[in-house]
Amino acid sequence: FLPQVDSTNAGRVLASDAAVFLKKSGLTDLVLGKIWDLADTDGKGILNKQEFFVALRLVACAQNGLDVSLNSLSLPVPPPRFTDTGSPLLLSGTASSDLPWAVKPEDKAKYDAIFDSLNPVNGLLSGDKVKPVLLNSKLPVDILGRVWELSDIDRDGMLDREEFAVAMFLVYCALEKEPVPMSLPAALVPPSKRKPLSVPGAMPLIPSSASTKESHQSLPPVGILAAKPPLTQ
């Protein structure tokens, strides 16, 4: 990666060059800011080769749902992924599609049993059926809202069997005190959803918000858990 950002071959990377490059990781500015602060140890706004590698390693940690901290540097993670578009979920290239799914088969069987017990309709669970299961975890409502957003991969306000497994996986991670990532790591995207992932940002909410006029229960994805915690008690 270094030659792409060190155009003068000086063995160092300026903050402005690094910012443009690191943005391609699809991580939020908040996370990237934290990564820069940890890597730029002397606060000069320039990274030497070693510090740049620390930044790349922290990007990989963040993309795989690990905490952005120096403690995570010793953990085994796949190399960081960068893309030329602004979409955090863009999974082009072979690396991501060949990744094994993070949800293990034995865990998937458990999640499937819970899924079936919730009476899915046409293989889908609506938000109001998933909500009690998520709330049952006693996790903070903002964390559960993020779990919902990450697991509703096609943004249709419903979870299919694979998306539900992603939601359960993230809930169990959070219960183990692991941070819920800001964007879904490639390894967590179900293999069947990895190829043509070009979901335009606002589009899917249009049909689902039209149908919510009749039933307030099927709120659009973001609203389902973030809405008024006192009522959920």
TrEMBL record:
GO terms for cellular component: cytoplasm; plasma membrane. Residues 27-62, 139-174 form the EF-hand domain. Residues 200-233 are annotated as: Disordered. Keywords: Calcium, Metal-binding. The keyword GTP-binding does not apply. Residues 1-83, 107-195 form the EH domain. One of its GO terms (molecular function) is calcium ion binding. Pfam families: EH. GO terms for biological process: endocytosis; endosomal transport. This is EPS15 factor. It comes from Sakesphorus luctuosus.
